[in-house]
Amino acid sequence: MTGEVGLEKFLQLPETQPPLEYLEREIIQKPIPSFPEVVVRHKLLTKLNGIASSDSSWKAFLELRCTFNDYSLVPDIVVLTREHFPAEDNSRIFFPPDWSIDVFSPEQSQTIILKKVIRCLEAGTQLAWVIDIEEKTVFVYFPQRVVFFDRQEDLLPTPPFASHVSLTGGEIFSWLHF
User: Fold this and answer.
1) Domain extents for the chain?
2) What pTM does this model have?
3) Per-residue pLDDT of the chain in tens (178 residues, 90 and over written 9)
4) Class of domain 33-174
5) E-state strands within 14-136
């Protein structure tokens, strides 16, 4: 589904599954995730929140809508620091994620993923990961550079607030072996 509307009108639309996003004045529906994408998202969310539970200064959320700077995006995993947790009476957040993580879907445009990452970084996201399951590669986007990790032993960079997270590409991709 695509179409041009304003952000205010977009935010009045009912939530859908998979979610709609508002990027560059266009409404874009995220693709339905494949089984491997769901596995990686679930395992990564569980791992991050297991580590975060001992810290409580940050938490990972699945598909949390982030609305900021005329965009409304739904990364696969949104990591927020405590100061950005939504108030209990408000399920929406109006700022970019502190750490954005997307699992690339072959049905998804690479350009759309890159635009989402760039818009988040421009607005203050500290770090973004794009995980490509087919290529067994994790692209890590910093505000001023991009690095890719395609060796199993590569330790993946994390934002400073989550510096005690220790994950390799090999660990992430091993979750796909049952």
Assistant:
1) 33-174
2) 0.94
3) 455 689 999 999 999 999 999 999 999 999 999 999 999 999 999 999 999 987 789 999 999 999 999 999 999 999 999 999 877 766 679 999 999 999 999 999 999 999 999 999 999 999 999 999 999 999 999 999 999 999 999 999 999 999 999 999 999 999 999 7
4) alpha beta
5) 20-23, 26-29, 58-62, 66-68, 71-73, 77-81, 99-103, 127-132
